[in-house]
Amino acid sequence: xxxxxxxxxxxxITEEDKCPLCGGDTSKEWQGYVVxxxxxxxxxxRRMGIHVNGKFALRVR
Length: 61
Hints:
The chain is mainly β. The chain has one helix and five strands. The chain has one domain (about 5-60): Rubrerythrin, domain 2, CATH 2.20.28.90. Strands 2-1-3 form a three-stranded antiparallel β-sheet, with no helix packed on it. The radius of gyration is 11 Å and the shape is globular. The N and C termini lie far apart (about 20 Å).
C-alpha cells in the first residue's frame, strides 16, 4: 500500500513522488485536507487558489 503524499507547490494529494498537476516534489509530511467537488462555485477553492477539482492538503511541510 502506497502512502499518500502532498505536493509542496500546489498541495494536491497523490501517491506519486512527483505531482501529476504541476510536476513539483511531494512530501509525506502534510496535515488536514479538503476535497473540492466544484471549483467554479467553491469559496474555499477560490481562497486557496485551486483551479481544479480534487483532494488538497491544508498544510505541507
